[in-house]
Design goal:
Helix content is 53%, strand content 16%. It is α/β, with parallel strands linked by helices. The chain has a five-stranded parallel beta sheet with strand order 2-1-3-4-5, sandwiched between helices. α2 packs across α6 and α4 runs parallel beside α5. The two termini are 26 Å apart.
Length: 154
């Protein structure tokens, strides 16, 4: 093995990200592109899809090391009252748990990092108890996504 290859190999082992295959599931095309760029800059082989169904299809190929995914969110057409808010939060939590369970059926060992809007953070906490590895609020993704993934890989 050449010295450069040995150096590259030790960098991969030390960083834990270089060469990792990470799938991003995000419906917002701008945010999806930004996340992919962040990960590629960190040496990751990043793949991205826009829908949860496409994410499952990609996971079925079996070559993903980590999944970064948005949570399904209950439609919010404007909150009428606290009771409506409670119902939407409950729906969001149920959808998030179903999504994590669906991922686990396809890829039981792939770590999951959830991307959340502020209104889905309680659902992310529930999803963590069901097997997600971590979560990152979308508003902080540019600053914390790569480090969060490094922590998950440790």
């Amino acid at each position: 093995m050449s010295e450069n290859a040995a150096a590259d190999d030790s960098t991969t082992q030390a960083d834990g990200l270089v060469g990792s295959r990470i799938l991003i599931v995000e419906s917002d095309p701008v945010l999806r592109s930004e996340m992919r760029s962040l990960l590629v800059a960190a040496g990751v082989d990043a793949f991205d899809v826009a829908t949860h169904d496409d994410g499952i299809d990609r996971l079925n190929q079996g070559d993903i090391d980590l999944l970064v995914t948005e949570l399904p969110s209950a439609g919010r057409s404007g909150l009428v009252d606290d009771q409506t808010n409670d119902l939407q939060n409950a729906e969001c939590t149920a959808d998030a748990l179903r999504w994590v369970c669906r991922i686990r059926k396809v890829s039981p060992r792939v770590p999951i990092v959830l991307m959340t809007q502020s209104e889905t953070e309680p659902a992310a906490c529930e999803a963590l108890m069901q097997g997600a590895a971590s979560y990152v609020p979308k508003r902080l993704a540019a600053n914390t996504l790569v480090e969060t993934i490094r922590q998950v890989f440790k």
